Amino acid sequence: MIEAKHLIKSFDGKEIIRDISATFEKGKTNLIIGRSGSGKTVFMKLLVGLLSPDAGEIRYDGRNLPSMKKAELNALRQEMGMLFQGSALFDSMTVMENVMFPLTMFSQETRQKQEMRAQFCLKRVQMADAADLYPGEISGGMMKRTAIARAIALNPKYLFCDEPNSGLDPKTSLLIDDLIHGITQEYNMTTIINTHDMNSVMNIGDKILFIYEGKKEWEGTKDEIMNAENKKLNDFVFASDLFRKVKAAENQ
Ligand SMILES: Nc1ncnc2c1ncn2[C@@H]1O[C@H](COP(=O)(O)OP(=O)(O)O)[C@@H](O)[C@H]1O
Ligand SMILES: [Mg+2]
């Protein structure tokens, strides 16, 4: 479980994250939604420790990240998998080498065991057959799957994905969503996903946090979102293509 308590972050005197408190549970895909510029990426960077908050706590199963010393933070980092915008694969490395990278950096296991782990992860994302290809030779969806395999190589307790579907077509987006949802349940990870894709919300939104101009505006489940009485949330939800279509169909 990850808990954020009264997080505040300003840039150049402007408050970007305005007193957000939230709880993210184990075995669930926790979605953070909001318009572009609402603060999702800054919030995620605070959670993983890439930015330091001006005030507030971030607790990983009780341990407060902002007060950690370097060694403790490094140990925690190895329990985190990250999938940040773009898949950020190394172009000069094969798919297999990309997944091996965190293992060779941080795993104490023998080379043979590391390779077995990498192969296992590639198999899980159905990329085993493409292990020897380079990122330039595969599709966007395959790159994303490789990045997921790399993110789970060290068997993380916590998984962070910032807009995992950006640049993917709707069908591939669905596959990526299902994959992230599946591995979250399978490995009982605490997963947090930034998205502005309502398809993802309805597909895998175990828990949803809606951020509006740096504030937590609403939280609930995908079953609650359709009937939520919150104007800002409704505007966001019904601005999406999917919901214009649903509404139009209902009115016929
Ligand atoms: N390093 C930074 N310095 C100054 N302003 C920033 C920085 N990072 C983000 N911001 C600002 O914070 C706001 C929220 O950005 P971001 O978290 O990227 O939004 P989102 O991910 O929801 O689209 C934006 O107005 C952005 O310009
Ligand atoms: Mg963002």
Keywords, separated by commas or semicolons:
four-stranded antiparallel beta sheet, six-stranded mixed beta sheet, globular, 252 residues, 2 domains, Rossmann fold, binds magnesium ion, alpha/beta, 41% helix, single chain, binds adenosine-5'-diphosphate
Brief write-up:
It contains 10 helices and 10 strands.
Give a structural overview.
By secondary structure, this protein is of the alpha/beta class. The protein folds into two domains: 1-79 and 158-172 and 182-222, 3-Layer(aba) Sandwich (Rossmann fold), CATH 3.40.50.300; 88-155, no CATH class. 41% of the residues lie in helices and 24% in strands. It is built from ten helices and ten strands. The chain has helices spanning 40-48, 70-77, 95-106, 111-124, 140-152, 170-186, 198-204, 222-225, 231-239, 241-251, and strands at 2-11, 14-24, 29-33, 55-60, 63-64, 80-83, 158-162, 190-195, 207-212, 215-220. The strands form two sheets. Strands 6-7-8-3-9-10 form a six-stranded mixed beta sheet, with helices on both faces. A hairpin with a 2-residue loop joins strand 1 and strand 2. The radius of gyration is 19 Å and the shape is globular. The N and C termini lie far apart (44 Å). 37% of the residues are buried. Magnesium ion (MG) binds next to helix 1. Adenosine-5'-diphosphate binds at residues 11, 16, 34, 36-42.
Counting H and I runs of at least 4 residues, what is the number of helices?
10
Helix content: 40-55%
Question: Regions with pLDDT < 50 over 5+ consecutive residues?
Answer: none
CATH structural fold name of the largest domain:
Rossmann fold
